[in-house]
Amino acid sequence: MPFTRPTLLLDERRCRDNIRRMSAKAGRHGIRLRPHFKTHQSLAVGRWFRDEGVAAITVSCVDMAACFAADGWRDITIAFPVNPHDAGRIDRLAAGSRLCCLVESPAAATMLDGGLENRVDMMIKVDTGYGRTGIRWEDEALLDSTVEAVRRSRHLRLAGFLTHAGHSYRAASVAEIARIHGETLARISSVKARYQSGGEDLVASVGDTPCCSLAEDFRGADEIRPGNYVFNDMQQVTLGSCSPRDVAVAVACPVVAIHAARREIIVHGGAVHLSKDTYRGTGGDPVHGQVVELTGDAWTAPVRGAQLVSLSQEHGKIRAPEDLVARISVGDALGVLPAHSCLTANLARGYTTLDGAPLDHLSGREWRRP
Ligand code: PLP
């Protein structure tokens, strides 16, 4: 098909394979899979998870929770520190679904509780090494007082402890990802063990895509929450957590100019389509995407040496080998495997399957706030 604008292509077969593989892994290890839906934010793609038996999901904001609840999802964790000013909307959602929120201070728990009528499950966010949010795993005083505030509340139920090892994305090797994963499991399970005696059935929840894709030992965790694996991207390829064949999205970018002497191809596909995210390309410099060729109903393996090396708002500059530059004309389109598929999907606001069918993304929908 000719492309008149950058278009996010979704390969349903690869996507369903990615979904199936992680579900099978969780099943093998006897842990609950609660995939993070912030990557795809699509009701249609969500239903592919349902086809694999997924019943519990993670989202990153109340709006997203409301959209998926309206599509029949009844067990939702909002994995973002709760804003107590959202208590009214959280309360309305909790009337129809099992809703779980995150806190990391007694004050937030008490303030949220004051605005609720319905029961809301509460996970305490623990920082096991990433250093973004959460109570440090060894800060027993703050853990104690936060657990105490939840247990004392009228409407909150302590559900467990949740951590996110986002520093796996900074790992220099697969061995380092394995070390981070082992450390995360040890730290979160020690926190859970400290409070387990209360008779509650507490959950230890972990999960980022690099660790979950590579690990084969999840002892200490009850639940995993990877999200990016649904599409994967070049950051995952570079980390070693998937191969380019597992990347399920590519941005079709119309070719608008060719500078053969500089071996550069200019495409319509800039920062507003791909985000400014990077990964370390061949040669070691940060790049924004890997070029593939579009074959009508699929895309090829990565074209060696063809990378998206710089972005402005609408333009993308591809550095390409001589034979690709010679083969390509203005009016053609090239595919780009993005550095970071979550942001690319969010910017695209919708998908086109390889059959040409449109699929929804929440950012492109009209929906009512709860
Ligand atoms: N849980 C939390 C709290 C997150 O912030 C994220 C991603 O940012 C995930 C799970 C999913 O991790 P990934 O994007 O590596 O799949």
Descriptive labels:
six-stranded antiparallel barrel, 25% strand, nine-stranded parallel beta sheet, 12 helices, 370 residues, binds pyridoxal-5'-phosphate, alpha/beta
Draw up the topology in text:
Blueprint: E1 7-10, H1 12-29, E2 32-33, H2 43-51, E3 57-59, H3 62-70, E4 75-81, H4 87-94, E5 98-103, H5 106-114, E6 120-127, E7 135-136, H6 140-152, E8 156-162, H7 174-195, E9 203-206, H8 209-214, E10 223-224, H9 234-239, E11 249-259, E12 264-268, H10 271-274, E13 279-280, E14 286-287, E15 289-293, E16 307-311, E17 315-319, H11 322-327, E18 333-338, H12 341-348, E19 350-353, E20 358-360
Parallel strand pairs: 1-19, 2-10, 3-4, 4-5, 5-6, 6-7, 6-8, 8-9, 9-10
Antiparallel strand pairs: 1-11, 11-12, 11-18, 12-17, 13-14, 15-16, 15-18, 16-17, 19-20
Helix pairs in contact: 5-6
The structure holds pyridoxal-5'-phosphate (PLP).
Written overview of the protein:
The chain is of the alpha/beta class and 370 residues long. It is built from twelve helices and 20 strands. It has helices at 12-29, 43-51, 62-70, 87-94, 106-114, 140-152, 174-195, 209-214, 234-239, 271-274, 322-327, 341-348, and strands at residues 7-10, 32-33, 57-59, 75-81, 98-103, 120-127, 135-136, 156-162, 203-206, 223-224, 249-259, 264-268, 279-280, 286-287, 289-293, 307-311, 315-319, 333-338, 350-353, 358-360. Strands 2, 3, 4, 5, 6, 7, 8, 9 and 10 form a nine-stranded parallel sheet that branches. Helix 5 (106-114) links the parallel strand 5 and strand 6. It is elongated, with a radius of gyration of 22 Å. The two termini are 39 Å apart. The relative contact order is 0.15. Bound molecules: pyridoxal-5'-phosphate (PLP). Pyridoxal-5'-phosphate (PLP) binds at residues 36, 58, 79, 164, 207-209, 225-228.
